[in-house]
User: Fold this.
Amino acid sequence: MEAALAATRESAAGGGRARIRVRGVARRYGALEVFRNVDLDVADREIVAIVGPSGCGKTTLLRCIDGLMPVDEGTIEVNGERITQPIAGVAMVFQHFGLFPWKTVYANVAYGLKLAGASAAEIAERVPYFIALVGLKGFEQAYPYQMSGGMQQRCGLARALAVEPSVLLMDEPFAAVDAQTREILQFELLRIWEQRPTSMVFVTHSIEEAVLMGDRVIVLKGRPSSIHEDIAIDLPRPRSRETLGEPRFAELRERVWSTLFSEARQAEFQLEKAR
Amino acid sequence: MTADALRRHGPFWLSLIIGMALWEIAGRMANPAFFVPLSETLVRLWQLTESGQLIRQFGESATLFLTGFVLAVAIGMPLGLLLARVRLMRVALEPYIMILYATPMVALIPFILSMMGFGFAPKVLVVFLFAVFPVLYNTIEGARSIKPEMIEVAHSFRSSEWALWREVMVPYTLPFTMTGVRLAIGRALVGMVAAEFFLSSTGLGQLIMTAGQNFDTPGVFAVILVIGLMGVALMRIGLMVERYFARWRD
Assistant:
């Protein structure tokens, strides 16, 4: 196991091959161009957070990477495979949780494995492990409506992790839960990632969340939007609650904030000058 | 009986006792050719049961009911799912389904008679036609109400079309179908009696007809009582099945 881990680590570093490679991608809804000229590489075990104003196409980009939606220009490759439809090795966590309400926690977590053709023995072995990993032990037989939003998203996360993806796509996963739960889930996710590191694209509205999670923060903006800036987050890992208190964290948060809102601020300045 | 149980079930039993008493009193005051008291009905019911007549005819009616009803569910549900998923088929067939659903099926009986005659099959067809549309209609409406997000999740997990049906479409739609099934139970019961009246006379329908022609009013009411109780029991079962399949809904 150790050796195998070391080997994958080396090949990721040595090969320099990106898990996700987005090249010149554009997407339109009818006449409306959502984004254009998007180039993005995500390395093995790298977390890239994407922030941007509402309607900038963050989620659309993520769905294109998952293969749920075709691109109009450019190409997307994941693990060297050109994306035209969802592929194995990639799993998505949805903002609306996307749990099947008629399935129990156990059946929801088993869903992806079942579709992937896992044997009954494999399912019986892996499902309890991932349920325990996300802290839902004891809730195996609960239905989604019986659980809080935070617990539902834990279940959504377990379902995605259970297929042991090399790439996780997070579509504003904590946007629909309350602020306190959101904070708890952020640190839970960081803890789980330390145990089972994957490449991750993390779409969020929250600048703080982006800085906390990401190795890089991508700022998407403009109309049509494109990558405005790619900010390296050099905070050490493992990250925890203490990370939030570090001066470097505040600096980086400020940096992302000013990038995101520079135009708004300029407009404000001009307004003041005019006075 | 505790005070709580009395409060909960008291009104039901009280109402039942008052209803039975009213039947008894009204029956004693009315012309026995039209209406008879409850006690006489029950005596006649016992006689019919003892002679084995009621049991045999009940068996025949039950066979007819079950055959038509099971066919209605077995065809109505898959067809409903198919129509919900395949837009072209739905657009093409929906007007006919709506027309047939709205048509009182009794109106079709003479046509069925002239087409198929007096056997068992035409009667099954009548029960089937009475029962199939609520199942079909509720299945279509249910399957169409599925959120696109659910389908998207399935696609994200690389679901095949077959797995999409098995894991998503069917379990989501079942509670809706079961609402249709519950409605279908009542309609199939009407279909059963109508078929036994107007096509070859058998079963409980025949028993009512013969009793009526012989001015055996207690016999008529005895059989009506049996059919009524059968309906209540079936509705109860339908409701339980419906709840079972909807247990994941809050």
User: Anything to note?
Assistant: Residues 2-84+206-274 of chain A form a domain with the Rossmann fold fold (CATH 3.40.50). Chain A has eight helices and ten strands. The interface with chain B takes residues 66, 68, 85-88, 91-92, 94, 96, 98, 100-103, 111-112, 114-116, 143-146, 163 of chain A (CB under 8 Å). The first strand of chain A starts at residue 20 and ends at 29.
